[in-house]
Amino acid sequence: MATKQNPLTPTGSAALPETFVSQLRERFTSRRADQIDIIDAILEDHKALKDLIPLLKGEGTYTEKRGVFAFLAAALEAHAKPEEQTWYKSLKTQDDMKVEGLEGDIEHALADQLVNELKATTDEDLFMAKVKVLAEMLEHHIKEEENEMLPEFRQNSTASERRELGAKYLKLRSAYLTH
Ligand SMILES: [Fe+2]
Ligand SMILES: [Fe+2]
Fold first, then answer.
1. What is the number of structural domains in the chain?
2. Which ligand gives the minimal distance to the CA of 150?
3. How would you write the pLDDT of the chain (179 residues) with one tens digit per residue?
4. Looking at the domain assignment, is residue 30 inside a domain?
5. Looking at the domain assignment, is residue 11 inside a domain?
6. Which of 15, 40, 109, 113 could bond to 19 as cystine, CB 3.0-4.6 Å?
7. In angstroms, what is the span from residue 83 Cα to ligand 2's centroid?
């Protein structure tokens, strides 16, 4: 488990979300954006999400999970929106992957809805229940992307198409991380 780079600890001594966001921003700065395959960029961003998911599914307190959720919401937005606007958009142009692209959009919309409800709720029990459902949904979604959709997409695309999408993905991603 990659807890070493994780700015959070289960005891709640968390770095500020701004620090976390700047770490996300710096992930690709040493590499040329036009040479990054979108599959690699997506997998790299999944790592940040996969570090946070167990903290939301596990034994933590309400206060700890509130803190972790703030990080997750920032990481998720900066990943999901660019993913929809680049990778899913491309999947939906391919006859044999269109349904997967639509499925991805629907799962993202459901996660968005839960994130918005979680931001608004002041009921601690409801928060704990919803945040666990969100974590489980994301875990399932990421597994499906990594085990099924990305390998199939790799087979049906060229390296230059993936680099072109990678550049677009990173451009959108940095816009979501700066606003
Ligand atoms: Fe996704
Ligand atoms: Fe993803």
1. 1
2. 2
3. 444 444 454 444 456 788 888 889 888 887 777 789 999 999 999 999 999 999 999 999 999 999 999 999 999 999 999 999 999 999 999 999 999 999 999 999 999 999 999 999 999 999 999 999 999 999 999 999 999 999 999 999 999 999 999 999 999 999 998 86
4. yes
5. no
6. 15
7. 7
Ligand nearest to the CA of 46: 2
Ligand sitting nearest the alpha carbon of 100 = 1
Tell me, in angstroms, the distance from the centre of ligand 2 to residue 46's CA. Answer: 6
Query: 82 CA to middle of ligand 1, Å?
Result: 9
Q: What is the pTM of this model?
A: 0.88
Report the candidate in 77, 50, 78, 23 with the shortest Cα–Cα distance to residue 14.
23
The answer to whether residue 79 is domain-embedded is yes
Residue 175 DSSP SS3: helix
Q: Is 124 part of any domain? A: yes
* Ligand 1 mean position, distance from CA 102 (Å): 11
Domain ranges, residue 21: 17-178
Q: Which of 59, 125, 49 is nearest to 80 (CA)?
A: 49
